[in-house]
């Protein structure tokens, strides 16, 4: 499921979200100029390696400089490829503006970073001895989605759904869209943990970030319900699916 837009216009310009996207993009452009060997070193240094932070891996296994705790923050600005980068930034753009509008610019940045750290810790708890570097903003963005789930459950998400070679779109309530997304992360994480498999997706970071977003929203005073959404296009797209 690919979200295209929601029906809640932001009252303010999402300045903090734009800055976060710009910083992440600059880091990604820097990555594109690195050789494969240098990129591996970059990820090992600034990515989040659970086993290095927990001390379960021997220090000689990682001959790279850098604080073991730095990756909790720096990893959320790294991405492994174009699809990874564009997908994360698109989700941040779709769901972040309304959460930022509700929290304010400064509190949104604090909230984003806290959720990113919490997501990393969730993955460490689930797989404390992993030697794979975790990179990507998806944990922090999952926190934003968790906040959106609490604040705007009745919002409508215009969603692109690929079915084989046919693409359809459907207007889905946010509570259903985000609920399905969270359930997918939780189930996939549980299956991989049960099979003792280390995959290429940090599902527990996604699930942990989502839960952290719901909880930390209250700590930042954001549980107050926002104004009802203004549905600018709900009539236009109501009525189910259409083929593209």
From TrEMBL:
Transmembrane segments: 12-30, 69-96, 108-126, 132-151, 158-183, 203-223
Highest taxon above the source species: Bacteria
GO cellular component terms listed in the entry, alphabetical order: membrane
Protein keywords: Hydrolase, Membrane, Protease, Transmembrane, Transmembrane helix
Keyword Hydrolase applies: yes
InterPro entries the UniProt entry points to: Peptidase_S54_rhomboid_dom, Rhomboid-like_sf, Rhomboid_protease_S54
GO molecular function terms noted in the UniProt entry: serine-type endopeptidase activity
Residue intervals of the Peptidase S54 rhomboid domain: 69-219
Localization (cell): Membrane
Protein name: Rhomboid family intramembrane serine protease
Organism of this sequence: Eiseniibacteriota bacterium
């Amino acid at each position: 499921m690919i979200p295209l837009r929601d029906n809640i216009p932001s009252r303010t310009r999402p300045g903090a979200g734009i800055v976060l996207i710009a910083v992440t993009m600059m880091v990604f452009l820097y990555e594109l100029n690195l050789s494969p060997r240098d990129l591996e070193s970059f990820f090992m240094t600034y990515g989040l390696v659970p086993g290095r932070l927990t001390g379960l891996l021997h220090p000689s296994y990682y001959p790279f400089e850098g604080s073991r705790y730095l990756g909790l923050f720096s990893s959320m600005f790294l991405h492994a490829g174009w699809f990874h980068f564009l997908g994360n930034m698109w989700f941040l753009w779709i769901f972040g503006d309304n959460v930022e509008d509700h929290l304010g610019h400064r509190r949104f940045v604090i909230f984003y970073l806290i959720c990113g750290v919490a997501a990393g810790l969730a993955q460490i708890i689930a797989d404390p001895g992993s030697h794979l570097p975790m990179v990507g903003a998806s944990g922090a963005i999952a926190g934003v989605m968790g906040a959106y789930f609490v604040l705007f459950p009745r919002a409508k998400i215009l969603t692109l759904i690929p079915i084989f070679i046919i693409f359809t779109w459907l207007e889905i309530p946010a509570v259903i869209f985000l609920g399905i997304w969270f359930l997918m992360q939780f189930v996939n994480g549980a299956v991989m943990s049960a099979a003792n498999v280390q995959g290429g997706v940090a599902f527990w970071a996604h699930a942990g970030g989502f839960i952290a977003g719901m909880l930390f929203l209250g700590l930042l005073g954001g549980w107050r319900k926002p104004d009802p959404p203004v549905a600018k296009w709900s009539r236009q797209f109501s009525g189910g699916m259409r083929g593209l």
